[in-house]
Amino acid sequence: MNAESWHRKDLLGIADLSPEEIRLILDTAESFREVAERPIKKVPTLRGKTVINLFFESSTRTRSSFEIAEKRLSADNMNFSTSGSALEKGESLVDTALNLEAMSPDLVVIRHRAPGVPHLLAARLRSGVINAGDGAHEHPTQALLDAFTIRRHKGRLDGLTVTIVGDIEHSRVVRSNIHLLTKMGSRVRVAGPRTMLPPALEALGVEVHTELEPAIAGADVVMMLRIQLERMNRKLFPSSREYFQRFALTRERLGAAREDAIVMHPGPMNRGVEIASDVADGPQSVILEQVAAGVAVRMAVLYLLSGVREEEG
Amino acid sequence: MNAESWHRKDLLGIADLSPEEIRLILDTAESFREVAERPIKKVPTLRGKTVINLFFESSTRTRSSFEIAEKRLSADNMNFSTSGSALEKGESLVDTALNLEAMSPDLVVIRHRAPGVPHLLAARLRSGVINAGDGAHEHPTQALLDAFTIRRHKGRLDGLTVTIVGDIEHSRVVRSNIHLLTKMGSRVRVAGPRTMLPPALEALGVEVHTELEPAIAGADVVMMLRIQLERMNRKLFPSSREYFQRFALTRERLGAAREDAIVMHPGPMNRGVEIASDVADGPQSVILEQVAAGVAVRMAVLYLLSGVREEEG
Amino acid sequence: MNAESWHRKDLLGIADLSPEEIRLILDTAESFREVAERPIKKVPTLRGKTVINLFFESSTRTRSSFEIAEKRLSADNMNFSTSGSALEKGESLVDTALNLEAMSPDLVVIRHRAPGVPHLLAARLRSGVINAGDGAHEHPTQALLDAFTIRRHKGRLDGLTVTIVGDIEHSRVVRSNIHLLTKMGSRVRVAGPRTMLPPALEALGVEVHTELEPAIAGADVVMMLRIQLERMNRKLFPSSREYFQRFALTRERLGAAREDAIVMHPGPMNRGVEIASDVADGPQSVILEQVAAGVAVRMAVLYLLSGVREEEG
Left, alpha or beta for C310 (phi > 0: left; psi -120 to 50: alpha)? Predict the structure, then answer.
């Protein structure tokens, strides 16, 4: 499969994608990765295209990654956040989106706390829609950047053992990652307190653990999730201290993984809660590489969805 | 009249403009309209020009329309909103504007809740000033985009009957539209509850109605205004349900207008309050075209005021 | 010294700079100054470079000045402010900065209320760091734009008498200015209420006054600082009226300075508190020129730190 055969208007989730499509995105990202290392970090690929970043949930990290990707592709971009928008005046989400679309953007990047909002908009808009996180549902570009990072270090995705640790139930990151990794032939293990594990996880083809050590044993990749401290009040677990004792990735525990295992985290980290600082900054950590991969992967997705080839061909 | 003979530094209101000037803006907008339909939605017209968007009232719609217009003209733009500005530190509006001007912008787009603020600044600044809405006074680019949309559908502005319905007293949109439409030879009717009609409206040359049906009868254009639900507390009308019963545009009521009448709304709409959903989405609605027209009209205004021709000539 | 011999990665404060480095920045700013007067206010100098503006304290003025400077140099820029950032989720400042850096910016402009934060980041980041104000510590580009403005009017910096009046203790502007002016051979006098004068000021080589008149007598430059009205509650002085009576620059008091003295203010001004309106707008005021100088000086600093020459050479 090559860029010419890409036919999707939208990127809504990993669940929809074929392994070939995933591979195409990752290969395309490889070719954009080195742009960040040039003195002139810019290519004219999306010159004259308009991208609207529509964030109904705040996010420095994901928004800025998309923004940098857009600018390095020479697109014109615009940011909208809830505050100050017509939504406060009672306009419906769909009307807001249709109004923005009437200004002829090529692509709309959307984050919303309600699952399915990107799909709803994609069905109504002619513009391409990229899901930048919808509730606890999907966050496809995060899973793609994780896969990109793993592949760079391991040379492949199939046959790897990837352990994901934390609040599995409320994480869109884990959901998208499970879809992607199992499609690409990795074995996925998840671990967390029983209160943070959704029912019926095994149906997704993953191994479920309620203790950290057996989940990590022999893993090629250990991915720690951010603990939402605000959830502690809701009694999902007793305290951040106890969480650290049972589930944090420490140097000692990491020893149970393969010697060449890499450590990942989608950020922002709670050092001393889900991950010890020396592991976060240690030689096996690829956490900052994930951030750099995010820009490359988003450039690839923006490029593939922009329909540049069609119009130029 | 052609672009070379345009001599205004500022666009403050429709009241100041001659019919020739209005026609020039609309004709210029026609030539920019198709930019939004190109694969490369960008022209180099304002390259190296700086435009400051100074919004003291939040507005997703108008601000984003100006922003897209500026980017498609290749201008450098910058957004200021009240929050975080020196105004909170007690600096006067004029000092803020003079300070921004000292950075040599070419144009300043301003929205403010107080009528006359754009005029005050225009008198003090060398830069061109565009009024993007001043209180209940004027909103000239809105009236221009409405006229642009009407002209595209009807082929002309003179001799048409245009009915505007809603809170006539508190609307800058209606004020600018009355100026524009009467100058261009349309007959304007306004309709709304008595509490929302200012005194002495007839002096502006419009027909005033307190019932919807006779106002709509035989109209070429029906323009519904947004009802500010927050005004209901102030007893301007009893409830949104009663407002709907008396003044909302329904399919049945629209039947009294000409068969080829178009339905307009400046947005954001309150579906089920001032307009029924099936009318908003129906075949006579040109509401989303108005949004697209907004970008073209703003590109035209930015271009005409930028003095590009002088400096290049 | 010329641009090729500039070797600093960061601009953290004036205290670190040699007189030659200061002179180089000012000379470079001269060459950028006229860009603002061209019809096309843009040079391709930083095309394809990424600049991140990381403002943890709001600032319309400084941020917009940097933003315009960046755009006129054709850099890609991005703005971050605290609100909505990962910092609210408990991520540390250093993690935030490392994450942003992983996206490969060339330069990071930072403002923070805590002294030393830019230095902390500069030590950890490969990107160049520009201090845009750190607590009451330094604000180097402000001192440079002040010096630029003085030099344009006086033709030199050495041998001048410069009087700075106001809240000396809490001002980063005054600290950077004292460093710069004394390095360049000016005599500096400071004046303010005793409660606003830090101890041991004389050690910095400045003359300290608690009355306005003797401080102004014979001065070439009178620089008034903004009074933080919110500090009045903290009893640093009794009332703005009393402050005006004792320390405001009025026309009469300005008469004690040299006849060709210039009046400066970093803005935003409290007219009628620290400066009389007729002085602020009078013939000796260069306050708006300072703003224009800010853009030129920031273009110079961005250019020198960007390492353009190295990579192109």
Answer: alpha
Is the confidence at residue C250, as pLDDT, over 60?
A: yes
Among C99, C125, C310, most A C-beta atoms within 10 A, so best to mutate, is: C99
CA B168 to chain centre: 14
Interatomic CA distance for residues B15 and B220, integer angstroms: 23
The answer to whether the CB atoms of B91 and C269 lie below 8 A apart is: yes
User: Which distant-in-sequence residues (6+ apart) come within 8 Å of A110 by Cβ?
Assistant: A54, A55, A56, A117, A118, A121, A129, A130, A131, A132, A134
Partners of residue B104 in chain C, C-beta under 8 Å: 36-37, 41, 292, 295
> Sheet harboring B221-224: ordered strands across?
B207-209, B187-191, B161-165, B221-224, B262-264
Give C48's contacts in chain A (Cβ within 8 Å): 38-42
Compute the distance between CA of residue A197 and CA of residue B138 in angstroms, rounded to an integer.
57
Residue B60 has pLDDT above 90, yes or no: no
Quick one: pLDDT band at residue B311, thresholds 50, 70, 90? very low
Q: What distance in Å separates the CA atoms of residue A192 and residue A171, rounded to the nearest whole number?
A: 12
Identify the CA nearest to B297 among candidates B29, B108, B46, B71: B29
Helix (H/G/I), strand (E/B), else coil: C274: coil
In this complex, the residue of C38, C68, C294 whose CB is nearest that of residue B78 is C68
Contact A312 B270 (CB under 8 A): no
CA-to-CA dists, residue C39 to A178, B104, B106, angstroms: 55, 10, 9
Q: Which DSSP letter does residue B167 get?
A: -
Q: Which of C64, C111, C167 is best to mutate for the B interface (most B CBs within 10 A)?
A: C64
Search chain B and give the residue with CA nearest C228. Answer: B89
pLDDT score of A26 more than 90: yes
Under an 8 A CB cutoff, do C288 and B98 touch?
A: yes
Q: How far apart are CA A65 and CA A11, in angstroms?
A: 16
Instruction: Supply φ then ψ for residue C289, to 5 degrees.
Output: -65, -30
Confidence of residue A137 (pLDDT cuts 50, 70, 90): very high
Token pair of C165 as six digits: 């009046």
Tell me which of A32, A34, A37, A41 to substitute to probe the interface with C (most C C-beta atoms closer than 10 Å).
A41
Contact list in C for residue B47 (CB cut-off 8 A) is 40, 42
- Condensed to tens digits (0 to 9), the pLDDT of residues B91-124 reads 788 898 899 899 999 999 999 999 999 999 999 9
Residue A307 is predicted with a pLDDT of 81
Chains A, B: CB contacts within 8 A come to: 79
Nearest to B229 among A83, A90, A96 (CB): A90
- Give residue B313's pLDDT band: very low, low, confident or very high (50, 70, 90): very low
Taking an 8 Å cut-off on Cβ atoms, the answer to whether A58 and C100 are in contact is no
pTM: 0.93
Distances (CA, A) of B219 to B69, B178, B189, B225: 32, 15, 9, 16
Kindly list the partner chains of chain C, i.e. chains with 3 or more CB atom pairs below 8 Å: A, B
Binned at pLDDT 50, 70 and 90, residue B312 comes out as very low
> B155 vs C309, which has greater pLDDT?
B155
Residue C309: per-residue pLDDT: 40
B178-194 confidence digits (pLDDT tens): 999 999 999 999 999 99
Of B61, B68, B290, the CB nearest to A86: B61
Verify whether the Cβ–Cβ distance A91 to B267 is below 8 Å: yes
Q: What is the DSSP letter of B80?
A: E
Reply yes or no: is the peptide bond before residue A39 cis, omega within 30 of 0: no
Using a CB-CB cut-off of 8 Å, the residues of chain A touching B40 are 47-49
CB pair distance less than 8 Å for A78 and B60: no
Task: Grade residue C86 by pLDDT with cuts at 50, 70 and 90.
Answer: low
Coil, strand or helix at B182: helix
